[in-house]
Fold these 3 entries.
Entry 1:
Amino acid sequence: MSEPQPSNGHIERISEMSGTIPVDSMLNSLTLDEKIGQLFSVPAYGSFTNEHDPGFLRLKRLIRDYHIGGIIFFRGDVYGQAILHNKLQRTAKLPLWVSQDMEFGAAMRVEGTTRFTPAMGVAATGNPENAYLKGKITAREAKALGVHQIYAPVLDVNNNPDNPVINVRSFSADPDLVALFGMNMIEGIESEGILATAKHFPGHGDTDVDSHLNLPVINHGITRLEEIELVPFRKAVNNGLRSVMSAHIAYPNVSTNGNLPGTLDESILRSLLIDELGFNGLVVTDGLEMQGIAANFSPGEAVVLALKAGADKMLISPDEMTAIHELKRAVQSGTISEERIDRSVRKILSLKAEHGLFENRMVNTDDLSYTIDTPEYRAISERIARESVTLLKNDGNVLPVRDVDYLNVLAVALSDDQSGSTGSGWARELRKYHNNVSFHVLDRRTSEEEIDEMRKDAMKADLIIIGSFIVVRSSQPMQIQPEQLEIINELTAGETPSVLMAFGNPYVVRDVPDADVHLMAWSASRSQIDQTVPALFGASHITGQLPIRIPGMYEIGDGIEMRQSTLRYDTPEAVGMSGDSLLAIDMIMQEAINDSVFPGGVVAVMHKGALVWNNGYGYYDYSKTKEISANEVYDLASLTKVVATTTSIMKLVDEGLIGLDDPVQQYIPEFSEGIKKNVTIRHLLLHTSGLPAFKVYVDELQTRDEIISAVRREPLISDPGEEYEYSDLGFILLGEIVEQVSGRRLDRYVRTEMFYPMGMYSTHFNPSAVGGWMSNRIPPTEIDTVYERGLVQGVVHDERAYYMEGVAGHAGLFSTARDLAVYSYMLLNGGLYAGERYLSDSVINEFTEQRSELSNRGFGFDRKSSGFSTAGSLSGPNTFGHTGFTGTSIWIDPDRETAIILLTNRVHPNRSYGSGIGEVRAKVADTVLGSIVSDKEQSL
């Protein structure tokens, strides 16, 4: 059944008038009932609603019969709100003025939209541009949803740590900071044609009473208000502020009306806001259903007093029908004039005309999937959340947390609810960065048995992390409850280092002052959690500065800066890449699999310190029965030369234990005669030693000692430094030199010194010996019919390395794409990882720059060649890396801070396969580098 449209004629009349006749003429055409209705905004929930739902029918009746002029949407979802919006607009004679509370972004009320960190977190970033972007994106999404007015930003100065209602909703305890960030957010909102609303005038920051529950009273005089509370409002008004929301707070030492709430007090709205500050915009009441009003005034009395005080828009009356009836009687009795009502209605109609509502009041639902929660919007909101993280204390340099320092971590999610699920997303994020995290929830439903388990895990823990999810909610306690605090104190009483992460209420640190680390995160949203946990492990910069004062502990501006030194897991858009463009990798890999270049593989992309792509493709083999995941362990073949051997030489050079011009004879006596005595470490690294590319050897020699002895005795085929000949033999010797100098075989040395402390847990020689957790993730390489090894899986493919017990300087290393991304980031980060230095920046530059007159190679590392290159055509001239015979490659472009990793088993089932691997490498590289978005393209 189609919805009846009883008022089409009236709609057409008003629409025609708005286009040709001034608002005054439109106003004069309205009845008193219609004018009164325009003053009210009633609540609606933007979720699916059946046509016969009583709440929906009541809304329609209010709009149709009581001429309600506005809707304030509460919680809902994108399509539910848009559809209900259109239904209600079709019901209304005059277009509805739609408003919504969006302090934290549209997601504060609408599921599926972009969520932003609260105001205090935005101020903690120290960048007012972030407030502007928050306002702009929020307004864009609001506009797409048909919202015309946003109830934000909060201009309250939160200078009372015990404030139960404002807290992180305020930008700061510094009035100038509140003004600066507030005005930037207002400008962002209004740049999209949406009306911003500053609240709560004249200031709700210095109270310890929740106005939802009672009437707060602030006893400060006008001098104090001028110095603090009024500063942001005055500056915003002078900057063109167009809408203000009043506060349900009494100011007896400012007002001539005693303890009358500010919303109803002419001394506050008329005298102070309108006359003193010179504000001439729209004044909106805070919700009239709040107990600061409703407990002391009837619905109609509250509206009459609000109008007399200077308010224009009546928000959420507890009984609209009664309020409308009583207001009409007040006009009829002369208690309030119709002219006073006209003044407010004129403002409302003018705003509706300004926003074009008389021409088009409907939401275009077809556009919502393109204009809501875009990757660009998410990237900006996540960046702001990341930049908001504030480190106030780091005793003992607990951060950045490294697995090797804290093998066992206990994480406790502290909550004042009883869901039992608080912090589950936090725990998942922690486990991305640490392999051994035990997790518990401490809330109102936690049993004594569960608390005993916490105690046992605390005894075993090397680090205890408390995640406080006690957020500011109306009628809820702000601090840790005594019984919970007793347990927290017990868990952290010993010598074990502890961390307090405050998600949503920064003042909670007062309850746990002795924690070694205090980390502020401002909100308990999933986005904020995801962008905060990396900071704990050094995976993002920490630059936040405290915008408030925490008495006796921290002052405004406090904050410890810590630079990123660990790989972060993030989205392409977070680091300026296009995820849509990167999707082309899927097709490149699928086409290669279809063409039997390889049965499967993994592609990883690391850009600007973040692993933004790590996906598996295809299968272990051509039977296509076991799919590849991103976590598979591949035989790296010649990537061993750089990841293990060259890196070990770099470290030994850094430590002064090896010199590049050291004669090889210094370590290998067989090089002490003839032209071999002129061979240096430099020659071996540059493949200019004169050694041949390789020798089979294993036809006759099948023990490690025999093969190494043969390589040592191998005659040169050219004078040292005269010719370039890519040689496995030279790197076998380099592996032996590492053992000679360090006293440990190459595998043990590089794992102890590099791989294990860096968290590269899946990087091993002889991975099958590690255990099933490794060997079950290794795709097969060749089916060996020459040396009768059969299916080569879990052991090195290269025959010489195989007979050298799986450990050689040229081959034998296995790893994952993720581990290689960690390795790449360490090189791009100047040798630092997780706060520890593994290599010097100078030695990295020395080894990766061009170092040969005979080739474009660096020391050990290959570099992008002229003409066709498997590093792609878009990579820069300083790109370095290596390829492996089994179908592996790693290319690092330092100018773009990008690493491209491709792992395959292209020699399966035999070496006749995989001839197109070079083209695949180049296509993947060009796709990755082509997905980097320019600064101009990234701008909103």
Note: The two ends are 43 Å apart (CA to CA).
Entry 2:
Amino acid sequence: MFLNCHSYHSLRYGTISIENLVRKAVDLNIRTLALTDINTVTGIYDFYKLCEENHIKPIVGVDVRVENEQYYICLARNAIGIAETNRLLTDHNCEGIEIPKTNPSLENTFVIYPLKNIPEKLLEYEFIGIRENELNLLVRPELKKLIDKMVILHPITFNGTEEYELHKILRAIDGNTLISKLSENDHCQSTEIFFDKKKLLSAYKLYPQIIENTKYLVNNCSFDFDFSTPKNKKHFTDSRENDFKLLKELAYEGLERRYPDGDTDAKARVEKELGVIDQLNFCGYFLITWDIIQYSNRMGFMHVGRGSGANSIVSYCIGITDICPLELDLYFERFLNLNRKTPPDFDIDWSWQTRDIILEYIFKKYGKDHVAFCGTNVEFKYRSIFREVGKAFGLPKDELDILAGRPMDQHDNNSVFRAVHHYGKMLEKYPNQRSMHSCGILISEEPITYYSALEMPPKGFPIVQFDMHTAEAIGLEKFDILSQRGLGTIKDAVDLIREKRGITIDIKDTTLSKNEARCNEFLSIGKTIGCFYIESPAMRGLLRRLKCENYKVLVAASSIIRPGVAQSGMMREYIFRHNNPDKFEYFHEVFEKELGETYGIMVYQEDVIKIALHFGGLSAPDGDVLRRAMSGKGRSLSALQKVKDHFFESCKELGHPEQLSKEVYRQIESFAGYSFCKAHSASYAVESYQSLYLKVYYPIEFMVCAINNGGGFYRTEVYVHEAKMSGATICNPCVNLSELQTTVYGNDVYLGLMHIEKLEGKIAQMIPEERKNNGDYTCLEDFVKRIPIGIETLQILIFIGAFRFTGKQKHELLIEARFLMAGNRPDNMQLTLLDEPKKEYQLPKIQRDPFEDAFDEIEILGFPVSFSPFDLLQTRYRGTVMAKELTKFHKSQVKMLAYLISRKHVPTKRGAMFFGTWIDAGGEYFDTAHFPNCLEEYPFQGGGCYLLLGTVEVDFHFPTITIHKMAKMPFIPDPRYSMDQYRSLETARLLQEDVSMTQRKPYPQEQEIGLPRQKMK
């Protein structure tokens, strides 16, 4: 009888979770229940499952509203009915088609109108809902004649008085207004709550026809859904047989290309994989991915196929991935096995510049009716909750800032703040809005509106109304189409090298870089800034600790740096064993044979499968069940228990002592959830090597492209510094030589106009375009006639030196600009057919302090170019030790002068600590550790140069300075403001630093890891 229930997926309206909705129905012995969220079907699949588990008949539908006005409630009579409603909403959301206020064309759907919206004519499947408090209106003749088309309407929106208040808070948040200003039409009625079904029916006892009509709707609504069948596009060709035939042809063609010497192991692996892929009917999935890659290759784009897909030799042969699974002993079962009923999951990266082109191809190729992004539910977050709730209560901005910016224990203990806390806590985990999944694409066999209405977020690609977990549950597996800046840097560098040097590099040929001696030398000393995934301070420190000088060690490093692996203690243990191979024993020969590459440590997820297989005697698919269950991806505890029991039974049969088996299982249990996919690490390592190869042999071009792709871990200034350290001469932007992006002529790097923060984007684009079309700018006057620019922007260009080609001083150009622009609006400036002779002004020569340019640069670019930050210090002292000498000073106290690059916050039991990264006056990098007791007395004071006093600790070849004292060093007064003491110190405060935050716990110490270093019997 409850045909209009709202969950909290009725965003900023409903207050009840799907679980609580069904639980309440169970408590009240309600045997039929309808979920009709407002304009969404987000919750219908979870609702269906929970109802089935609790022996409740589920009815699904949608409460259709436009601008807060309820048009009607749609109840699906069958699966086609929900598809019809989804199409109605999709046409409105994505195409802007108006939703009809009455008589929508929904033949497989019951439509229930509120009394406020009764159509002139009721169709066969249309009814009128009447609430209990509206029954007294039936005395009216116009309503009385419609009783035979009426049904019971008792909406459900909240549970209890508290939730009713919460509902009103949500409505105020949605309307960006105060609770006190809500009208009755803005929120639901106070009666929209569950109560006894018999009591509800008794209210309608004088109208048996209404009760019978309601029963008729209930009995004739059916929503049966098969979760077990895949919903993805079934075939790439016209049939399963032809899909397999094509995939097999492509795989064998690729086999000859990848293994020209006729590798028999590779051929056997291809045959084995093809059999499993065909048996599971996943050929279409592989071929669709292959098709996307083929388009990418035709367009000349770079891609990286990563994740567990690289465990497949078929993926390698058909070009989806570039990782040989035989070389790295990657198990196919980690990616796909007969226990897996859902399609595999390919993760593919493109450059951030080309990803949208790939997406457009997918939508065009497979049809907009069959393609959509996964949605994601964005929940109310801690800070936003208190701000939003506080705003609804009418708190002023300064109090909202306190609520959002301070911990709860620092808030005032007044009644309003207590109410904000109370309702804010209730809102935790509530969905606040729907957004687009960052990379998950769905391609369905049936029109995607069979499963969901679509919405159109600002990004411009439609999304389904549920998240990736629901998609997977109903049989829609996503294609992960990701983007990253590293690939853009590599592709642009290859193009720039071809353009500037005439050298063509086949960067996809991984033999170029994998075992290249000079690349390995750079790798071993952590000289990797600008290189994808291996440029962060933590990664560079790890590379130095490992003296990493080959591909396989880099693959391991890419895995153990991950937070989970490091947190488990495996990073620390790996470093120890790598540097001390004679100071530990493999505690069992299986670990030596199978995990010798990683010194007997389960670094990768594949290692769990190996040990389960070779020590425990399990099958590879069972090993993957174990891995998935322990990493939180398993769905069944009973399946895990079954595999665990099988593991111990098998160990006993193999003759392993019980104590040994328990220790092995303890390690599996301890590390399976932390370990990282080896294929994923291998894919990252290949890309890291590609970028490193370019950095080693073409450093200037590579760093220019790193700058143009938005860098990576660091700010632009750091990559400019790297280019300078590589032999480049850094030049300020110039209207005749600079492009929008940074460019290079020989060894001269001209910063792009895009780096002038206050220069409008369209002007920055127009300057090089106009120059290309009509030649270089001859003088300032020529420039202002050709570019519609205002005096303030023109002055910025003068201050940065963009007109230095004229040979005039900045003060001359500024005066000339004033003359040229006097009385002229930028849009009135234009070239004339006959220019008057240019007037020459004789201005006095002014002695200019050379440091003025550096301060101009800090103000306009954020960092100095003409001088280094050290040149601007009042002191000439440069410290007692330089960074390249630090390894010689283990346990010694040193004093250093350094420029702050970045710092990372790490919480500890004793308070916040930081790890700092710096450069010394020679341009070399080094790292520091700042503990809470030191930071209390000697805190960081923003970007700039510091005098540091600390003790050097060399940990496996990598020096870190534990800081005892530090002080920020003053710059010389800004000579541009010699008459204004305050302003003369202001510019130096603009120097930046990179600050990153982490909530990880401190890594465990050696004694806490508990991994045996002796053989067990």
Note: The first strand starts at residue 2 and ends at 5.
Entry 3:
Amino acid sequence: MNSIDAAVQHGNASLDGAMQRLEGQFSYEGTAYALPVTYAVTGIAVQTADDARDAYERSGMNPLVASECLMAARSASEGGKKEPYTGFIGDAILRKLGYSLVDGSVVGIGLLVGTPESGEAAAAICRELQEKYMLTFLAGGVVSALGEAGVHVGLDYRLVPLGPDGADGIHFADIIARVAMMFGGVQPGDLDRLLVYAAERAKAFVVAFPGLTEEEIAFVEALQVLGIPILTTGGYEGGTWIRTAPADTVRTGMEMRGIRVAVTAIPIPMACSPAFEGKSIRKEEMYVEFGGGRTPAFELLRMRPQEEFRDGAVSVVGPDVDSVAPGTALPLAVLVDVAGQRMKKDFEPVLERRIHTFINYGEGSWHVAQRDMIWVRISKDAVAKGVTIGDLGTLLAHKFRMEFPDHIDAVQVTLVTDGQKVREMLPEARTLYAERDERIAGMKDEDTETFYSCTLCQTFAPNHVCIITPERPALCGAITWLDARIAYEITPAGANQPVRKGDVIDPVLGEFAGVNRFVKKASHGETDRVSLYSMLENPMTACGCFECIAAIVPEVSGILIVNRDFGGETPLGMTFSTLAGTIGGGAQTPGFVGVSRNYIVSDRFLQAENGIERVVWMPSTLKEELRDRLRARLESLDMPNISEKIADETTAPTLDDLIAFLERVDHPVLKMKPLI
């Protein structure tokens, strides 16, 4: 049994010696934050061994800084981690996780480090962490122990295998450091603010299993300075680590961080949790599928009088999995009937989109798309455990009642797999879809006196306020004006609040007196004014969850747009991650603004700077994704040929290439008034 105090003393001495012997150059790819822990603590962007020693000394010989520098040097010499390990996680992936960190589907983060004495006990801890909405990182022998216990690991399962050694757990610390800088506005080198942010907002704890080296024990011990409690199931004595029985570990850790989650079991033979929402079920893993182009399939949620259906009823019309062969493709209609005194017809499309979320909560069920374009799969593993098509209905019925208790008094789910019946039902469903679209289609910002706020991201970006209008969705792309309006009606005290526009200060900039008043109060006085249609004058703040970034290219007086999924450099010489590092955390950064994909094709897109007409570059994948809507938008401006005049990484990878391209195609930006 290791003595924690002695191990920390010896481990720190060993780390110090290794730092003195450190040589070479090293850095992490895919981040704007250098070695994130070291950068956050000292403000030094380490690239060489000398930089590392300077930062280490400036940090007061901090073992977290030493562990990170040594791990970065090791990664540079040995190469990246091989599957199933992730190693260092890039900024783009971390930003994708950002929305789950603020929407309630992740309530905290944990690190399991070391080698558990029992793989089954570790598996039980992980399953409870998944069920309790925790995002869990793994380092050391725990990864292989879970594999032997049959536990799926990976980002898709919110069990993230960082590496085979306990030392790989340093990436858990660098994620906390980057979240603080990305979302919390913590400036590199501001150690005091970093410590406060981590202690108050990270909601993290560590479980240390046996088998850690002295250097790893020193690293784990140092995490406590970030306000992170260390729990252990055994193998260590002394120090301040908290000894717990495996069955009590998750509850103890969550209680210590003030994390409260009520989990109600759903009576079906597979686990259900947001932890499974991001998984995929590949073709070879699939037992049965529906839709996806192979069969007709649709989903529809309808408000109906309660007397017309039976509350709690779940029925399957047509064949179930026990009567079809593996690999079968069946038709599917998912009909969810709801009733409630506070239920409104306008709620239907918003609640209907939750079908996607809820089905993906099942460990062995998978769902993509919506309406009559859905694609659903059930895995072989799930069917082997007894899961049926009817269990998807039970899952939906329980989740709708659990998530919307104030609005849904009764719910019935019918799943139709009879092909003829599905085809007969489709026209009625499509008629209802069209009626819904007509209610919101063409709505303009001037058609309403009320916008809506979103402060979900204040969990991590305390001063950021998103303003959502009919023509400007939330910058994360997840919430439209209609979504926000309905969310407010469903949860009046929630993150989406009505914002009266008030007097128009500037119609071109999109500045409104009422919006300014709201933003000043909701940002705790940090932001006085905001222009909804400009990137130069008082642009809207950003949290870090934005889908895209719009940035000025001063040399051509144009606008560049880059999406989060693009990993290359832009003509500005910066990647998405580098650009994102300049605008997150709730700050206003004139010339740069976070936007959603859908806002790009809006009439209000940066209208103060001529909007889409001034766009000169975007990645080819983004252009392809927006192609039809972009062409329609440009045709409405009587400028259909501009889309061919927007450069991408294939036609203009550098600034010089971009200048030459714009001259060659005679882009209209060349004749516009300079922006600055």
Note: The longest helix spans residues 419-440.
